[in-house]
Write a structure and sequence with these properties.
The chain is of the alpha/beta class. The protein is 24% helix and 28% strand. The protein has a 7-stranded mixed beta sheet with strand order 3-2-1-4-5-7-6, covered by helices on one side. The longest helix is centred in the N-terminal third of the chain and has 13 residues.
Length: 139
């Protein structure tokens, strides 16, 4: 019965995985229209139905359905965005929030509001400064 929201979805991998795991309703959101198109195509390739949105949810006054599970991927690249994310999470406190991040500096701005629940080693020749990705849960 969970509503899953994949924010900053890129190609939609997290949302598609949720749909493949039989989430009740999945929304993949990215303000980049190319990302939204990639997500739509990937959902068709994987044979799942996901809602695709390009709305800027971080500035939207709308609130999420209570109990939503929200995944934010690699979005802490600057202080203004980190602040928007934090305020949005506070407005939607009835939801569960998870952040996947390779260690961007702006994540330090909310370090007292999150806890690491998982870490994965990665190798990325284009970004050698990132040797792992951590998954955090908002407290």
């Amino acid at each position: 019965d969970k509503h899953v929201l994949d924010v900053g979805c890129g190609c939609g991998a997290t949302g598609i995985a949720a749909a493949l795991s039989h989430a009740h309703h999945v929304t993949c959101n990215d303000i980049d229209t190319l990302a939204a198109t990639a997500t739509w195509l990937n959902s068709k390739i994987n044979g799942v139905v996901v809602e695709v949105s390009t709305e800027n949810l971080l500035t939207s006054p709308r609130t999420l359905p209570p109990g939503s599970m929200v995944f934010l991927g690699d979005m802490f690249y600057d202080a203004p965005t980190a602040e928007l994310i934090l305020r949005w999470c506070e407005r939607n406190s009835g939801s569960q929030f998870y952040v996947g991040d390779p260690g961007r500096w702006a994540l330090d701005l909310i370090s007292d509001r999150i806890e690491c629940v998982e870490e994965y080693g990665i190798q990325d020749e284009d970004c050698p400064e990132f040797d792992s990705v951590k998954v955090y849960k908002f407290l």
